[in-house]
Amino acid sequence: MEKIEVGEIFTIIDENDQENEVEIIGTVELEGTEYAAVSFVEDIQQENDEEMDVFFLKVDQDGDFAAIDSDEEFDKVLAAFDEMMDEEE
Q1: What is the DSSP string of 38-68?
Q2: Digit-coded pLDDT (tens) for 18-66
Q3: Is 57 inside any structural domain?
Q4: CA 33, CA 80: separation in Å to the nearest integer?
Q5: Does residue 4 form part of some domain?
Q6: What is the pTM of this model?
Q7: Using an 8 Å Cβ cutoff, are 69 and 56 in contact?
Q8: Per-residue confidence band for 89, with pLDDT thresholds at 50, 70 and 90
Q9: How many structural domains compose the chain?
Q10: Residue 2, domain member (yes or no)
Protein backbone atom coordinates (compact mmCIF):
# COMPACT_ATOMS: atom_id res chain seq x y z
CA MET A 1 0.00 0.00 0.00
CA GLU A 2 1.29 3.43 -0.94
CA LYS A 3 1.67 5.85 1.96
CA ILE A 4 -0.78 8.72 1.94
CA GLU A 5 0.73 12.13 2.41
CA VAL A 6 -0.52 15.34 4.00
CA GLY A 7 -1.09 17.84 1.20
CA GLU A 8 -2.11 15.19 -1.32
CA ILE A 9 -5.09 16.33 -3.41
CA PHE A 10 -7.60 14.01 -5.04
CA THR A 11 -11.14 14.09 -6.41
CA ILE A 12 -14.17 12.54 -4.77
CA ILE A 13 -17.68 12.23 -6.16
CA ASP A 14 -20.51 13.15 -3.80
CA GLU A 15 -24.01 11.73 -3.56
CA ASN A 16 -25.15 14.13 -6.32
CA ASP A 17 -22.42 12.91 -8.72
CA GLN A 18 -20.56 16.21 -8.32
CA GLU A 19 -16.76 16.09 -8.37
CA ASN A 20 -14.98 17.80 -5.47
CA GLU A 21 -11.25 18.24 -4.91
CA VAL A 22 -10.17 17.46 -1.37
CA GLU A 23 -6.80 17.76 0.33
CA ILE A 24 -5.42 15.56 3.07
CA ILE A 25 -4.79 17.80 6.07
CA GLY A 26 -3.77 15.09 8.53
CA THR A 27 -3.37 11.36 9.04
CA VAL A 28 -3.47 9.08 12.04
CA GLU A 29 -3.17 5.33 12.58
CA LEU A 30 -5.61 3.80 15.03
CA GLU A 31 -5.89 0.11 15.88
CA GLY A 32 -3.97 -0.87 12.74
CA THR A 33 -6.04 1.25 10.34
CA GLU A 34 -4.89 4.50 8.76
CA TYR A 35 -7.32 7.42 8.62
CA ALA A 36 -7.12 10.73 6.77
CA ALA A 37 -8.68 14.05 7.68
CA VAL A 38 -9.64 15.84 4.48
CA SER A 39 -11.16 19.17 3.54
CA PHE A 40 -12.34 20.73 0.32
CA VAL A 41 -9.47 22.46 -1.51
CA GLU A 42 -11.70 25.50 -2.03
CA ASP A 43 -12.22 25.85 1.75
CA ILE A 44 -8.49 25.52 2.45
CA GLN A 45 -7.63 28.18 -0.13
CA GLN A 46 -9.96 30.62 1.62
CA GLU A 47 -7.82 30.16 4.78
CA ASN A 48 -10.79 30.51 7.11
CA ASP A 49 -10.57 27.70 9.68
CA GLU A 50 -13.99 28.55 11.12
CA GLU A 51 -15.69 27.85 7.76
CA MET A 52 -13.64 24.80 6.78
CA ASP A 53 -15.48 21.47 6.71
CA VAL A 54 -13.30 18.56 7.76
CA PHE A 55 -14.27 14.94 7.36
CA PHE A 56 -12.55 11.62 7.86
CA LEU A 57 -11.90 8.69 5.54
CA LYS A 58 -10.24 5.39 6.31
CA VAL A 59 -7.73 3.66 4.11
CA ASP A 60 -8.87 0.15 3.23
CA GLN A 61 -6.69 -2.91 2.63
CA ASP A 62 -6.27 -1.99 -1.04
CA GLY A 63 -5.08 1.54 -0.21
CA ASP A 64 -8.34 3.11 -1.31
CA PHE A 65 -10.34 5.60 0.73
CA ALA A 66 -13.56 4.37 2.30
CA ALA A 67 -16.27 5.78 4.52
CA ILE A 68 -16.17 5.18 8.25
CA ASP A 69 -18.67 2.45 9.09
CA SER A 70 -20.08 3.42 12.47
CA ASP A 71 -20.58 6.28 14.89
CA GLU A 72 -18.34 4.47 17.38
CA GLU A 73 -15.49 4.25 14.87
CA PHE A 74 -16.02 7.92 13.91
CA ASP A 75 -15.89 9.00 17.57
CA LYS A 76 -12.58 7.12 18.09
CA VAL A 77 -11.04 8.70 14.99
CA LEU A 78 -12.25 12.18 15.95
CA ALA A 79 -10.76 11.78 19.45
CA ALA A 80 -7.42 10.60 17.99
CA PHE A 81 -7.26 13.59 15.62
CA ASP A 82 -8.23 16.01 18.40
CA GLU A 83 -5.46 14.59 20.58
CA MET A 84 -2.95 14.88 17.73
CA MET A 85 -3.96 18.50 17.07
CA ASP A 86 -3.65 19.39 20.78
CA GLU A 87 -0.11 17.95 20.82
CA GLU A 88 0.88 20.06 17.80
CA GLU A 89 -0.26 23.33 19.38
Answers
A1: EEEHHHHHTT-GGG--EEEEEE-TTS-EE--
A2: 999 999 999 999 999 999 999 999 888 876 656 778 899 999 888 888 9
A3: yes
A4: 12
A5: no
A6: 0.82
A7: no
A8: low
A9: 1
A10: no
